[in-house]
Amino acid sequence: MCHHLCHDLPPGGEVKRTERLHALTEMLRRSGTRGRTAERLAAEFGISVRTVKRDLAALESSGAPIWSRPGPGGGYGLAAGANLPPISLSPAQAVALLTAVAAVPDAPFADLASAGVKKILDVLDPKTRARADELAGRVWVNNPSPPVRAIRSALEEAMATQRVVRIRYSSSEDSVTTRDVEPILFGSTNGHWYLIGWCRLRNAIRWFRLSRIEHAAVTKTPCDGHGIEEVGIPPATARSVRGNSE
């Protein structure tokens, strides 16, 4: 919701209006074929219907594939399957991506996320890129060293291809074992990342802290199909990173 952040702007409020246009585009995208009425959009953003229609006209002029449907049940939306204009982020959105990636260098697929963010930043217009760069200089992170790249790569590949991964694992009791694990999911809790999978050595679901995995190698053996439901019910505060639509 943008009730308190996005409001009818006086002249000179272009930065906030740009942020609102980004949010408006995203809301229309997420509304799918249902669309949104101008009145509902106005209520969501705390602005007038006239301002909403002016914003929609600006988006359409910039190349956004906006459709409008008059009458009862009508409204505005984005054409399904249409190509959007080149990626356009506000400086704050760009820095949010940079911060999210920089804050979790030990997360699975972190290197790929960093490369993806760089691609996005490379296509921003120079003015936005300069503003984002200045704002990024005001955000600092201090993290421990991430897991060895070769280990993380093997775990990521095993998860993506659903093949058994052979790991050398050092437990909290300092015992070292070699195990074949069927990866089910990656989980983060209490500041640590874990590989959660079916341990063929113990014939049970086990959690393996990534920082205690000393070696990992992907085998050619496919997983037997142990599902996420076997891990159990996640805590109420836990969620997947899957993008959720309204």
Task: List low-pLDDT spans.
Answer: 1-15
The number of domains is 3
- The general outline is elongated
Work out the helix count: 7
* Main beta-sheet annotation: 5 strands, antiparallel
* Protein structure class: alpha+beta
SSE string, helix = H, strand = E?
Answer: HHHEEHHHHEEEEE
The total beta strand count reads: 7
Helix content: 25-40%
- In the CATH classification, which architecture of the largest domain applies? Roll
Any idea what the radius of gyration is? 23 Å
- The CATH class of the largest domain turns out to be Mainly Beta
State the distance separating the first and last CA atoms: 12 Å
The neighbouring-strand order within the major sheet is 6-5-4-3-7
The percent range for strand residues is: 15-25%
CATH topology category name of the largest domain: SH3 type barrels
Mean pLDDT: 85
Which features would summarize this protein structure in a list?
246 residues, two-stranded antiparallel sheet, alpha+beta, five-stranded antiparallel sheet, SH3 type barrels
Question: How would you describe this structure to a colleague?
Answer:
The chain is an alpha+beta fold and 246 residues long. The chain has 7 helices and 7 strands, in the order αααββααααβββββ. It has helices spanning 14-31, 38-45, 49-61, 91-103, 110-122, 126-136, 149-161, and strands at residues 66-69, 75-78, 163-170, 176-189, 192-199, 204-209, 213-222. The strands form 2 sheets. Strands 6-5-4-3-7 form a 5-stranded antiparallel β-sheet, with helices on one face. The longest helix is centred in the first third of the chain and has 18 residues, at 14-31.
